[in-house]
Amino acid sequence: MIPLHWYLLVAAGMFALGIYGVLARRNAVAILMSIELMLNAVNINLVAFWRYMAPEALNGQMFAILVFAVAAAEAAVGLALIISIYRNRETVVAEDINLLKW
Amino acid sequence: MQLPILESINLMAVLPVLIIAGWACVLLVFDLLIPRSRKHWTAWLALVGLLGAAVALFFQIGHFARLGSEAAFDGMVTVDGFSIFLQVVFVLTAIVGVLLALDYLPRHGIERGEYYVLLLFTTIGMMIMSMAADLIVVFVALELLSIPLYILSGFAGMRETSEEAALKYFLLGAFASSFLVYGIALTYGGTGTTRLTGIAQAVTSDALNLPLTTVGMGLLLVGLGFKVAAVPFHMWTPDVYQGAPTPVTAFMSVGAKAGGFAALIRVLVTAFPAIASEWGTLIAVIAGLTMLLGNIVAISQSNIKRMLAYSSIAHAGYILLAVAAAQRSENASFAIGAVVFYLLAYALTNLGAFTVAIAVERDDGTGTEIDDFAGLGKTRPWMALAMALFMLSLTGMPISGGLVGKVFVFQAALQAVPGDPLLLAVVIIGVLTSVVSAFYYLKVIMVMYMREGEGKAVLPLALKTVLAATAFGTLVLGIIPGPVFQMAQRAMLK
Questions:
Q1: ipTM for the complex?
Q2: Closest-CA residue in chain B for A36?
Q3: Do the beta carbons of residue B452 and residue B362 sit within 8 Å?
Q4: Across the interface, do A84 and B157 touch by the CB < 8 Å criterion?
């Protein structure tokens, strides 16, 4: 059987990639995709922990399902916001959306 | 005959939440039948639902004063004095949120029934947050709180700043909550459970994987720190508060913050008592930084919403200090009492201050500069007086809830670990920054009374009611804080 820490390393790598994407990409859609990547990394973690540490209780699995339900809700709201901004300003580049000073 | 499954679900304990949740779903459909020009009906109906929840809460107060606490949903949530007290704060805030929007939305041409429904949904998120006894519930409640708020902050869609605020809030919020959920996953891996009490047991046993759990707790703090706007996760606050429609800002500056603190206290005090001195130190450092940054940057602000945003960061610092004081179990009940008292005082004062900001704001969304307050002392003497009271309360001047809240917070911090140099240093920072905060709060009073100006303000009945109620509450908390503080202290976790 594949040892647990392999899964954890893959998940940590995906999570780190997601962070990199959020910080480095300029397109709002790409940032959203990076966030989804981070949430999926969490799901790998959850399911791996469930399988290796506490297979008798279903917490880990259930939690993973809730995480992607929430991720779907977030994507729906996020894309709606991005579309509405695009209609008004013809851009989805985060740096151009800067009426308010950071 | 009762089925065992129903007993473990224990619907009566979460009745207020159920009332609002059911009512919000009904309202969502009902709103479709209400013509565009009569959307205030939805507002009044939302108020009816919130009052229903308030009545249910009222009956629960007596019930839980006798019983202590009850678990529901097989231990996923715990209803105790702490959650009841905070639920009262949330329901009151939501009622104010509806009243503030009643005239604001039509005036600004953004009246839609969805506002009230989303407001109810995010209120449910806050309420569940205060009773979470499992990390899964913490996560789901946090998202239920956040997602409607993302939409609400972009509610003035045709105003570009509002849209931009929503996008920033959404991207940074989703980013922060993925840290939170990663932290939960690692804690789950380290301890083998997501139940807060189970984690507390696992932390003291041998089966624990300490590095995983510690990293998990740290990431959890990142996610919750974002919600309460603590330094260094505060960057979104000024932009979102300034860009969002003002009633939404008022609502979330109180509700989202209190929700974040509720979860923070639940998680830290219930799940991690064994490593309390570690998180106590961490939180105390964050508290000091938050007070410093919030108060110092607020001085240079010219926009009232932005100034109140930095002020809300600063106040998060004071509340965090009380959270840090909850690290020792002997002191926990006093410290948690100080937190919830401070939250209540802050809620009343801040809602009042935003009410005045709404009254002064013009229909096109301008009129949010502090200079626009010039002349209000003459044209609107009562409103100016109330605003002066709120500003004094936020500074922490006598006969206001703000002062009493700060005294409790500092006292809790000094008692927590007697002779601890770090906590003492943070208390000194707290006192000094309170003095600094007088600069920018008193500036508003000075502009209202000393400077000549038009002093225009629109003050319909709903705003007047809110203003009178919040001013009265602030005074009561300042003059006779005893009874409320006793209730707050009994509001400890069970």
A1: 0.94
A2: B178
A3: no
A4: yes
